[in-house]
């Protein structure tokens, strides 16, 4: 099958959905002719024009607030926030408008809108351009939260997100944009809420998100050489969360590790641990461990950045510590 | 619609707001309405003047002080009152309450508990109209306090560069809770801020319903014709506290009494009497009609059931 | 000992610290003569004047952003955000400036600032005026997070927070403002990072925060009648977190329940569960349960609001389910 | 300080920025500097004109394009370069990098990766000065794109009502990444926005260092005297892409060439030559002095060690 990059897969999803549905439009800073800071929307402005690929002033609050207003009145905006770190600028609009409007109105409005934004470190972009803030969004009922790891998942999940009638936070990893993977030419959609077992194994379950799926698969390969069989589960969507697949895997392996790049403290990992605790406690042969970003802002200097982000060896060591 | 009929409808709408609000205040004092209540009494000319200049398909965004806006845009008193009571039959099934009443079918994109939140939402509704080429206009109600929020700046800027069909209507009632408008900003007229976005800024007497109507009409016409947004500042006052229970230590009773002398309803009434559109009998007829509507709304609310607790789990997602 | 309310205790802490240290000032909406939306700062404007009790326009972004600038240059602002729900408006300033400035500058600045804000439901104030968003802040390294339950704790912890050289998010519960408790006349300070065992017990540990401490104590009383002995631990500060006291209690009781009012999904409860999992797994006789706010926005109507917020009977039932 | 000496120092400072930035661009291309780099080349007159009007104890807030501001305020090239390399000896021990260099002792409250974040921080520093009655002024650098953020509005409003000693200096370099200033707002001069806050708004040629100096000097004097904030717009241009690696599809090479003809350093040099303050020999002397400084900074950076990985855990809390 054909191989394309994660960025190309996202662009294809955008293009296909914009062609399929006139109500879909893109809005964000430099998303037009410039093609977005990471080049994801390149070519779309040329194809769809000014109205459907809207370059904005530096006004994240208005980007998201206007998307709420447009979504409530029949459009399907796909907003891009240049870095996930800037979501704070629009956090009121996300929290108090997007996530709650339907509920506050007694179910009488739909808000089909997607906010795409890149997360993660790895570029030495330092503390204000490297965060993974998914835990803010999973804590907000009313939002769906998607975090794809492969080009295939990114495309199928973005299409589902755009078709969803709820606000979806779609978190892309900036170190994945250039990563290639097989993506069929034919159209497909991946429903939100279905985890994917990226590798089957018997001894330990790793639940990993986004870029950490790759690091976990690498760790699994190394551990295989030592006779340890690791299963890697990628939830793909953090809400809705496919608890069943996670729990079934843990029931099989009796051991689990949660790996994410975000800061450990009150990260999504805690939620996964709590769910395993509630639903598979009797099956556990060891405590569930977390391998997460250190509890610091992301530092600039390469050796420091590398240190605070989970690495393959950290995952390997954590797995071994459980056995 | 002939002007006479329009003026009469506007008068009725103002009385409807006044009577509804008076009842709400009373019911709140009796402990029948939970939560917060922000009374619109005194500002009726703004909501009615503005909404009368709109088509039914146009949009409004409202505020925490929203009852007047909703009624002026055609909100049904029964569903409003039921919502204020937290009843299942309310506009939001009891989930929203005073600060979140909405009826998207009437173009009402919701009261809003976040000051200044309506500005980007209205901008988005206008963007939506523009993209759908459906000719609709969005009108955003907000007050002086909200004009100091970042959302004001970003929204007026965005709307101005894209010439979106939106009217930003600032009800300058001179206070944001206890903060006097003149202390919260170093300019006298909020309308002057329009210049920062290259759009027209208009000051209007917010207690003169016709003046508001005409200013908004002009802005709506410009917006619909692709001329972009307008900032209108309607100078007015709330007669009651910021919320029910506010001791109002920040202003004198005289100040309030002065404003009561400029009652927008009385002023309009006098005008309509002079024009021969209203007379004593008609006034009494209207008042008793509205009284019945309000009573009916209260009865509806009181007789309606509360939602079942488990219904709290519904409507989070579509 | 003298009894005063939670609001009075907070006011006393403010007054004492403002007297003690000229650099301390209060900034927020209607905090001056009006005394704040919940009356907490009443009388302070009369005592300290315009400069030290600063009424602002409705500009949360500037309130917090300016506090960062003032704290970095020698002042010790205590900002009030009228409702915790509005923290989103200033979330960029909190996240990218307050929490990270010291780190980004290589430790070369101190940011002694406190953000006080009321959390919680109970007033039928609906979805935008009832949230408990502590999990946003515990996820941000660089912030300290305090959540007192009693007047005594509120006073002592606020004084410590004002004296702390880091940004502290100080979360008050609006249903507690009128609650009375004993508070000594003499000065005292409660160090951040020390949990308090509000009730000793043998069978189950409840870790509860803020208003939920009271509900847990009520539940404990009811359970006592049935012969079940419950220990209630109040962390008081979520960061720094007194893990030791929590873990020691769990090691003693072998069972634990986490109770908070915030939405369950990715709430602080998950963090506590994960910590117990890591540090006391072998001591557990049952899975740790969470009794938290339902995963919805807070609805307006009284029966609905009551339903989504944890009640005494929910705690009682959860405890029984563990035994 | 005599004017001659001041002009000469300003000239030297501009050359120092230019040469530092040219070296940084080169080192970045060689892969020696990680992360993002936003070059200040072309805008030197703004930073130098502005900072020359400040006292050493005054504050500045800077931006993602901050190297020029920091050098003009007295930043040491060695510690700056070491920080850009991510070395332990850098201003921030390698934790900050280009977008976060700071030296609070020099009154530099940091470069900032968040566009528009400096405005409320500068407002707060000014509030701090006011409360401490220490006579310090805060100067906030930001660019045209940032002026569309809500922080601009809230900060100018807050500073204006309290008459805080702050100067808001907008370096209008005509673009925010690919967004032309004229497309991002519906007004020509950003300085016009001052009227929305009742404060003076001044337009100045951002490539004329003396003009910038004089405008800022006046604003600083007013601020220090309790006259409140000023909004100054300095019109200028960046010569390079938004960041290193920017293909600049949004503007023509001619546009850049035109600006190069207006080089702020050459203009000032010519002026100083005419005034007899500079001559060929002096220019060569200055250039080689700066070249040595820059080389020294590079050597310092290259010879400095990286921080130990575990140092990442330090400095989170005081
Ligand atoms: C973002 C935000 N900040 C603060 C509040 C609290 N609050 C509610 S109403 C109000 C005053 C609003 O003043 P204004 O905009 O003038 O409206 P008015 O009450 O006069 O109609 C404040 C500060 C809020 N709801 N939202
Ligand atoms: C809040 C925020 N939004 C977006 C960005 C991404 N970004 C970085 S620089 C930039 C353009 C800034 O334009 P301007 O303010 O004119 O500064 P200039 O680059 O021209 O100096 C953008 C959009 C950011 N860093 N912060
Ligand atoms: Mg007002
Ligand atoms: Mg610019």
- Arithmetic mean of pLDDT of chain B: 98
Instruction: Determine the number of helices of chain A (DSSP H or I, runs of at least 4 residues).
Output: 12
- Which ranges of chain A are low-confidence, i.e. pLDDT below 50, for 5 or more consecutive residues? none
**Count of separate structural domains of chain B:** 1
H/E series of chain A, N to C? EHEHEHEHHEHEHEEEEHEEHEHEHH
Q: What kind of oligomer do you see?
A: heterotetramer
**What is the CATH superfamily of chain B?**
Thiamin diphosphate (ThDP)-binding fold, Pyr/PP domains
Strand count, sense and barrel status of the largest sheet of chain A are: 7 strands, mixed
Q: What hetero molecules are in the model?
A: thiamine diphosphate, magnesium ion
- Structural class designation of chain A: alpha/beta
Strand order of the largest sheet of chain A: 3-2-4-5-7-6-12
Q: The CATH topology of the largest domain in chain A is what?
A: Rossmann fold
Question: Per DSSP, what share of the residues of chain B sits in E-state strands of 2 or more residues?
Answer: 5-15%
Shape of chain B: globular
Map the helices and strands.
The complex is a heterotetramer, with two copies of chain A (323 residues) and two copies of chain B (318 residues).
Chain A: E1 3-5, H1 6-20, E2 24-28, H2 44-52, E3 53-55, H3 60-72, E4 76-80, H4 91-98, H5 101-104, E5 114-119, H6 134-138, E6 144-146, H7 151-163, E7 168-173, E8 180-182, E9 196-199, E10 204-208, H8 211-225, E11 230-234, E12 237-239, H9 243-253, E13 256-263, H10 268-280, E14 289-293, H11 302-308, H12 312-322
Parallel strand pairs in A: 2-3, 2-4, 4-5, 5-7, 6-7, 10-11, 10-13, 13-14
Antiparallel strand pairs in A: 1-8, 6-12, 9-11
Chain B: H1 3-29, H2 44-52, E1 59-61, H3 67-72, H4 77-85, H5 118-132, E2 138-143, H6 150-161, E3 166-172, E4 175-176, E5 179-180, H7 181-184, E6 201-205, H8 209-224, E7 230-235, H9 253-261, H10 264-274, H11 280-303
Parallel strand pairs in B: 1-2, 2-3, 3-7, 6-7
Antiparallel strand pairs in B: 4-5
Helix pairs in contact in B: 1-2, 1-10, 1-11, 2-8, 4-11, 5-6
Bound molecules: thiamine diphosphate (2 copies) and magnesium ion (2 copies).
One thiamine diphosphate sits between chains D (63-65, 113-116, 143-146, 173, 175-177, 242) and A (29, 58, 60, 82, 86, 89).
